[in-house]
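Repro:
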Amino acid sequence: MMPLRKLSEGFGAESDHIPRDFPQVWDAFFASQVLVFRSQRFTAAEFLAFAKKFGRPEPHVIDQFHHSEHADILILSNRKKNGEPIGLADAGTYFHTDYSYLEVPARATLLYSIEVPGKGGDTLFANQYAAYDDLPSSIKTQIRDLVALHHYGNREEPEKSSRTVASVLTEEQEGRMTWVRHKVARKHPVTGRTALYSVSGSSFGIENMPQDEALDLLDELKRHATQQKYQLRLKYGVGDVVVWDNASLLHSATLTDPADPRTLWRITVKEEGRT
């Protein structure tokens, strides 16, 4: 069995090596929700090969920061070359779920940490299984059949100059985005457990509900779902590989000093088919 150390009492685990027997990784991933492999050494091709074991990678819509040899890899970095950014400097600095703005959303997101800042750069995770389980039965009944309307963006920050806005798209990239529907209380496609799904981030309304009521409910659910008791703060070291379960978590990057170099590679793989 793969030796694992707990990252918290609630969820999350880490290991110092990746076993050759991938089913061990698969099972540990869904059991832990956040799985960290410390101090790995990956080339871009090796990182991509590992990610593909979790599912089909989907290149990010922000294609100007794709890896030059592997478009499935998105570069997250505050470094510049010849005065131009080489990656996204402030990506996802608000609680959200990756690719919840797509009809077939993300299964897993993987990050490979190449360069770690002297301070900050952590990722916050919030356990949406636990958040759902703790809801009063009356709220569970209220939201059981509700469907949220999703679009690329951050519901709480529309100002494009803000560091906590959703990464700004070009006009052409915005044209590729459409409205999609996902249940507010969503059954996990692998584990079968129910979790709150993307109540923060890309959810901008609820089907067949007046907008003011929908926003009040989504904001109430977000406040509940992101309480400290549901959170895990993950600190990175150089070479760390992190993979998390988007169907059962919210996550948020944390801001760093723009002058303090930080670089990661990111791959996101999608669920299989419509859920």
